[in-house]
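Entry type: protein chain
Record version: 2
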Amino acid sequence: MLFPSETELEAIAARVAPLDAHLVEACDGDVSIVAIFPKWELAVLDLGGFHCWVRLPEADSYVEGARRLH
């Protein structure tokens, strides 16, 4: 995984939206946090091989929610 620059992280932080619940449900519980960027309150989740950006405060809830579903 290539890490973005500070400028790119600022742009990502400005556009990150909550994940659709169906996306989390579709990954059969295979959700993990693969990178954290605390300064921007961002995390990267691995959803069964698909990487996506989420807000850091929400990252753990996506992981726990996926585990509870499966």
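Comment: The chain has a mean pLDDT of 86.
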